[in-house]
């Protein structure tokens, strides 16, 4: 069974720099600002990979 979760990760730029905006499973946030657009794109790709490859949340991990 596949569960569909809406994931949105994008880069937004303004006069302060480049921001990675994300939304996943009812939560959202922003990372940045990054001065380099390539760095922001790498962070965006990593965040998207984090959401698509990890089922749980880091706070759910047990020792």
Quick summary:
This protein has one helix spanning 37-53, and strands at residues 7-14, 17-24, 27-34. The protein is α+β, with helices and mostly antiparallel strands.
Characterize the structure shown.
The protein has 63 residues and is α+β, with helices and mostly antiparallel strands. It is 27% helix and 38% strand. The chain contains one helix and three strands, in the order βββα. The chain has one helix spanning 37-53, and strands at residues 7-14, 17-24, 27-34. The chain has a three-stranded antiparallel beta sheet, covered by helices on one side. Strand 1 and strand 2 (17-24) form a beta hairpin. The N and C termini lie far apart (28 Å).
Give keywords.
63 residues, alpha+beta, 3-stranded antiparallel sheet, 3 strands
